[in-house]
UniProtKB/TrEMBL annotation:
It catalyses: 6-phospho-D-gluconate + NADP(+) = D-ribulose 5-phosphate + CO2 + NADPH. Its EC number is 1.1.1.44. Pathway: Carbohydrate degradation; pentose phosphate pathway; D-ribulose 5-phosphate from D-glucose 6-phosphate (oxidative stage): step 3/3. It comes from Hoeflea ulvae. GO terms for molecular function: phosphogluconate dehydrogenase (decarboxylating) activity. It is an enzyme of class 1 (oxidoreductase). Catalyzes the oxidative decarboxylation of 6-phosphogluconate to ribulose 5-phosphate and CO(2), with concomitant reduction of NADP to NADPH. This is 6-phosphogluconate dehydrogenase, decarboxylating.
Length: 469
């Protein structure tokens, strides 16, 4: 047995991860349920072939790896992972490590930890972000499990991970489900980020009447400023591409219905369970669901038409406002995402290192950005802050962008431009920063119909109103 590590599942992610491992000088054994895919992989390994042992059976695969064996499972999330673990279990020996690197629901990961307890096998739940390119040349890697298990695989995982100014974007984040939870929130934030970019694109396209190449130039210019990020870069790039058949911008002929696989929804569900608002992520998930209702939207437009366009501002002022509104929206989305992680950290006793999370998201992953470097710094300076918005750097950013966000949301409302995530960000800030809210009325209503009681500003204890007397 000469392989130092194994990879099961040679789909987009598994195949690229295996090549990345080989590229970093580790000998890797690979296996895929469908053997044709294994053969294809072996044929495509090229000069890395001598670092790869392609196996047709799980038995051969296990035999090819030197014990104690680290085995990465990179198959479709859900039932296939359980099936794969069940098939592997009898073949592995004590101290072997099973690493689930797919997009698992962290609750499944928690269950798998419990299921494997006492088996002698070690389990790691590992979030990987970066898509195909990241898997091949350096993803962001979020690890959950026992810390000593992490220590055993740390060299290979840091070797294959992305580097931000030389620092590896791979880290141990906590016990059991911590890695997959953080990956889930990463994806939730990614949903919000993408949605808000799509919203300002919508304002430019449908309100300002700009064509795709003109919008591309705006995003391109933004990518040298505070919004500098992978998602802004690819947005600019995508909007510049022409369809070979029609000569039109390809974005104009892509169907406006977004897919989703679950991580955004899980982020929202978990945030709701913990009572932490993640309104920008919620708005983004709902927007994808609404996008999928194309037939209904066509019927509704036929029924209601579209609001008249007025208040159109021309020139650079509105573009500057859009840039700042997007930045303000980003602050809300990230503040919310980190607040959800803080709550989960307390609930599941993970002790999540917020600054480290921001640091390993600075390169490799889909939400990588300059902005994350600033978040890392903010949490390093102020590790226990209740909300990112309350750190000096981000509070300054909010002050600087608040008026722009307000103008863009107001103008969008007046012109019927849907900007649900940006509007939710504004509503979140406006609610969050108001010391005296309106829940006094809700408490009065609750006490009126359900005798739920309320607290008074001027006295201790629980009180009831003199309703109906
Ligand atoms: P692909 O669809 O490219 O590949 C799926 C893989 O899963 C194949 O190897 C397939 O084997 C295997 N598989 C499916 N069902 C079973 C089963 N019942 N038993 C055994 N193997 C099975 O998926 P990806 O590589 O894109 O995704 C893999 C994981 O990585 C998923 O959890 C995904 O959410 C996650 N991920 C994906 C990212 C991406 O950008 N694509 C980014 C980050 C995470 P077979 O060839 O036999 O069908």
């Amino acid at each position: 047995a000469e392989a130092e590590i194994g990879v099961i599942g040679l789909g987009v992610m598994g195949a690229n991860l295996a090549l990345n491992i080989a590229d970093n000088g580790y000998h890797v054994a690979v296996y895929n349920r469908t053997t044709a895919r294994t053969d294809e992989f072996a044929a495509s390994a090229g000069e890395l072939s001598d670092k790869v042992t392609a196996c047709a059976t799980l038995e051969d695969f296990v035999a090819a790896i030197r014990p104690p064996r680290p085995v990465i499972i990179m198959v479709k999330a859900g039932e296939p992972v359980d099936a794969q673990i069940a098939a592997l279990k009898p073949l592995l020996a004590a101290n072997d490590i099973i690493i689930d690197a797919g997009n698992a629901n962290f609750r499944d990961t928690m269950r798998r930890f419990t299921d494997l307890e006492g088996s002698g096998l070690t389990f790691i739940g590992m979030g990987v972000s970066g898509g195909e390119e990241g898997a091949r040349h350096g993803p962001s890697i979020m690890v959950g499990g026992a810390e000593d298990a992490w220590k055993r695989v740390e060299p290979v995982l840091t070797a294959i991970s992305a580097k931000f100014e030389g620092e590896a974007c791979a880290a141990w984040l906590g016990e059991n489900g911590a890695g997959h939870f953080v990956k889930t929130i990463h994806n939730g934030i990614e949903y919000a980020d993408m949605q808000m970019i799509a919203e300002v694109y919508g304002v430019m396209r449908d309100h300002l009447g700009m064509d795709a190449p003109t919008i591309a130039a705006v995003f391109s210019a933004w990518s040298t400023g505070p919004l500098d990020s992978y998602l802004i870069d690819i947005t600019a790039e995508v909007l510049m591409v022409q369809d070979a058949h029609t000569g039109r911008p390809i974005a104009d002929i892509i169907v406006d219905a977004a897919g989703q696989k679950g991580t955004g929804r899980w982020s929202v569900i978990e945030s709701q369970m913990m009572g932490v608002p993640a309104t920008a992520i919620e708005a983004a998930v709902a927007a994808r669901s609404l996008s999928a209702m194309r037939e209904q939207r066509a019927l509704a437009q036929a029924e209601f038409g579209l609001p008249a366009q007025h208040d159109r501002r021309e020139g650079q002022a509105v573009i500057k406002d859009l840039e700042k509104a997007l930045l303000a929206g980003k602050v809300a989305a990230y503040a919310q995402g980190f607040a959800v992680m803080a709550a989960a950290s307390a609930e599941f006793k993970w002790n999540l290192p917020m600054a480290t999370i921001a640091r390993i998201w600075r390169a490799g992953c889909i939400i990588r950005s300059r902005f994350l470097d600033e978040i890392a710094t903010a949490f390093t300076n102020d590790p226990d802050v209740a909300n990112l918005a309350l750190t000096p750097a981000f509070s300054a950013m909010i002050r600087d962008t608040d008026a722009s966000l307000r103008r863009i949301v107001a103008e969008s409302a007046m012109n019927g431009m849907p900007v649900p995530a940006l509007a939710s960000a504004l509503a979140y800030f406006d609610t969050y920063r108001r010391a005296r809210g309106t829940a006094n009325l809700i408490q009065a209503q609750r006490d009126f119909f359900g005798a739920h009681g309320f607290a008074r500003l001027d006295a201790e204890g629980e009180h009831h109103g003199p309703w109906g007397s």
